Amino acid sequence: MARIPVKTAREIALMRESGRIVADVLALIGREVRPGVRVIDLDRMAEEYIRSRGGEPAFKGYGHDAKNLFPGTLCISVDDQVVHGIPDGRVLKEGEIVSIDVGVRKGGYFGDAARTFPVGVVAEEKRRLLQVTEESLYAGLAQACAGNKLHDVSAAVQEHVEAAGFSVVRDLVGHGIGKNLHEEPAIPNYGMRGTGPVLQEGMVLAIEPMVNAGTSRVRVENDGWTVTTADGKPSAHFEHTVVVRQGEPEILTRHG
Predict the structure, then answer these.
(1) Closest C-alpha among 230, 241, 143, 254 to residue 194
(2) Which of 42, 116, 126, 242 could make a disulfide contact with 249, Cβ separation 3.0–4.6 Å?
(3) Which ranges of the chain does DSSP label H, i.e. alpha helix?
């Protein structure tokens, strides 16, 4: 595995500003999620807000294939869409769940976070899926302390999710973050405690459980971006950017 960068206090301060914008975007968009809203309108709102704060949308124009760069500011993924849903004219419906993933670059550094919202009143299984996925994120975050091993984070997520009868997506991972949106290390949402690199003060991680109600298997749709569950059951996604500290990690994308 390549070296995991350790950020300076100055770098973390810059990331703190990017993270603050990310958190505010999620709060803003969360207030607008309701039946009848077009997802493209949420995307435009987010881009306008990010630019008003002096930031740049991290996802817009992202990709390794120049012929298929991501077109949106937000990844907006509905129901069985796990991640990387492209904002379009789709209208949100009562009972759906929608995952909003946002990245921001400001001052040369990135912040990244995601949250899944209910659209109106949702079924009990979906409500529980959201609750368990968010709980698993915080279970993982609690392990992001200096001296722990990276897969202590992974195992904490997996244990919480599987105890609830859901499954973690194994084909997608969290990541380090800093000057680049994706840096070392890759952070799976499953693993064995006591394994992986030792976490050090100042490492910055984007921890992001992606949890399916059914099978862990996923597929990529024809657009080359949207990842969906193989069995058509719903999926939830929660993410924070955090700094590894000696004690409790510092969450850079917490609102308020």
Answers:
(1) 143
(2) 242
(3) 9-32, 39-52, 124-141, 150-163
